[in-house]
Specification:
The complex is a heterodimer. Chain A is an alpha+beta fold. Chain A is built from four helices and eight strands, in the order βαββαββαββαβ. Chain B folds into two domains: 157 residues, Rossmann fold, CATH 3.40.50; 151 residues, Dihydrodipicolinate Reductase, domain 2 (2-Layer Sandwich), CATH 3.30.360. The relative contact order of chain B is 0.15. Classes of the chains: A alpha+beta, B alpha/beta. The complex binds NADP nicotinamide-adenine-dinucleotide phosphate.
Chain lengths: 163, 328
């Protein structure tokens, strides 16, 4: 969402605090000092992750702090899912598996945790995938499913992308 | 009401002992196991029957076969509880066809004939004015078929998700709870009597897939078979994978899923939030139905066991009696 606020001490905190209060997760804060705009006004873009049903509570709270909300872009609300893969992950080009998602442009692998027992045993990895919406998440998981089948990996999908 | 029981194993003995201990007005006039049979039009003494089976391994005379009981005993309902043969459905299929053709009702816990020939058996029963019921084939004691046929009668079922194999659920539960490897948990499941000597059917997801086919064909009137199901078992699930799921407040369960609008019919290990309603402990089964009117309904209960499976069979017997009148 894009916020407009007075460039005064405490304003940014006032805008950010309600996000964590509501259980949200701040992903990025981008300051934009628009040269054409009035100097005492600061444009801030916040990318955050928040349960859908809390969004109106959040905007109410931020507005009550005297911060003006210019635009709420729901496309920005990211969808996150974890997928687990089991098999010979390293020997089957782990980088390529990650790339298959990253190159889509609509989803990316933002986290990867691997557990490897002894060499030449099957390893297990958790891929955290982010996408801008659920449809894209379903598409990303479908791509991984194909990759897993081709590479002979067992893929453990999350239950219901919409849940 | 008179019944004949084919199969005197865990389920058959469970049914017989419940019928003798509860006054349900049901008389057993015929029984058979793999090597013997017994017919008594005046009613078999169950206590004596179970004692003989225990001491000799036989329930009756070696000269009397299961087919002799099907053809010769005076019964209203045949209870078919012989072992499941998922490939041919036999010999249960022949037992059931013969009984239906003779105008008798059938109640079974045997998945073989139902996964193969549900619609054919139903039309045969309809043409003879009788019925075939198979509550016990899926999820043991959980009254899923009654719920679908009666309680949710006016609903459209949009999708279903289920934990349909107690052995797999036990193994995954123990891996997560005790940090056991798959092999250790399987060994423990065997020691507890939850896994067969050859656990392939269970751990590879085939048993769950058979039950999924039975549910899907019942709900949507389809004629799906085992090869239409995309099946992945739990035999390749690692302890590492479970721990990766647990790190995020989740766990792994073998889930059977049918979602006709997305053409999904599959059994696979899935990541679920630990507090998801389908995350059951030990051998417990669970089924979630997604419906248009009732929303989501989840049933949970024991998926196997002698008396638990008998509960489902007796529910079917009494349903037939109330629907077709007291047959005596
Ligand atoms: N156990 C459960 O909790 C459970 C739950 C749901 C569904 N089921 C299903 O219910 C059925 C019975 O299970 P179970 O656990 O009771 O099996 P079980 O303990 O192996 O008993 C099978 C019985 O069937 C008899 N039998 C074998 N072949 C026969 C034949 N050709 N004619 C007549 N009787 C025959 C056996 O005879 P002998 O005694 O001579 O060996 C035995 O008495 C199976 O289809 C199973 O898949 C079981």
């Amino acid at each position: 969402m894009k916020l407009e606020m007075r460039d005064a001490p405490g304003q940014l905190v006032a805008a950010l605090k309600p996000i964590s209060d509501l259980g949200g997760n701040i992903i990025a804060v981008i300051h934009q000092r628009d040269p054409g705009s009035r100097s005492e006004v600061l444009g801030v873009q916040i990318v955050l992750d928040l349960p859908q049903d809390r969004l109106s509570d959040l905007t109410d709270l931020i507005r009550s702090q005297g911060v003006n909300i210019l635009r709420v872009n729901e496309e920005r609300l990211l969808c996150t899912r974890a997928v687990i893969m089991i098999g010979h992950l390293i020997h089957t080009d782990l980088g390529g598996t990650v790339d298959a998602i990253d190159r889509t442009g609509f989803a990316e692998v933002t986290g990867l945790t691997i557990r490897m027992p002894a060499i030449d045993q099957r390893s297990s990895a958790r891929f955290t995938i982010r996408s801008v919406n659920r449809e894209h998440m379903e598409d990303a998981i479908a791509i991984l499913r194909t990759v897993a089948r081709e590479k002979g990996l067992l893929m453990i999908e999350p239950m219901g992308v919409s849940q | 009401m008179k019944v004949a029981i084919l199969g005197m194993g865990s389920v058959g003995k469970g049914v017989a002992s419940v019928l003798s201990s509860k006054d349900l007005g049901v008389m057993v006039t015929g029984v058979a196991d793999s090597r013997s049979g017994l017919i008594d039009p005046d009613g078999i003494n169950i206590g004596a029957l179970l004692a003989t089976k225990r001491s000799t391994g036989l329930c009756g005379s070696a000269g009397i076969t299961a087919m002799d009981v099907v053809r010769g005993a005076p019964y209203d309902i045949l209870i078919e509880v012989t072992p499941t043969d998922a490939v041919s459905g036999e010999p249960a299929l022949t037992h059931i066809r013969t009984a239906l053709t003779m105008g008798r009702h059938v109640v079974t816990s045997n998945k073989g004939p139902i996964v193969h020939a549900l619609h054919a058996l139903r039309s045969l029963a309809a043409s003879k004015g009788t019925s075939i019921r198979y509550e016990a084939t899926v999820a043991g004691a959980i009254p899923i078929m009654h719920t679908l046929a009666d309680g949710l009668a006016g609903n459209e079922v949009l999708a279903l998700y289920g934990v349909l194999n107690g052995t797999c659920n036990y193994i995954l539960t123990r891996m997560a709870a005790e940090g056991l490897t798959y092999e250790q948990a399987l060994l423990e499941a065997r020691e507890m009597g939850y896994a067969e000597a050859d656990p392939t059917y269970d751990v590879k997801g085939i048993d769950a897939a058979i039950k999924l086919v039975i549910l899907a064909n019942t709900i949507w009137g389809t004629s799906s078979c085992l090869k239409d199901v995309e099946v992945r078992g739990i035999d390749l699930v690692t302890l590492d994978a479970l721990q990766l799921a647990e790190d995020q407040g989740c766990t792994i369960r073998l889930i059977a899923e049918a979602d006709p609008s997305n053409r999904i019919l599959r059994v696979s290990p899935r990541i679920l939030r630990s507090r998801h309603p389908l995350v059951t402990e030990g051998t417990l089964n669970a089924i979630t139905l997604v419906t248009d009117l009732a929303g989501e309904i989840t049933l949970m209960g024991k998926g196997a066991g002698s008396v638990e499976t008998a509960s489902a069979i007796i529910g079917d017997l009494l349903a037939i009696r109330s629907r077709y009148g007291r047959c005596d």
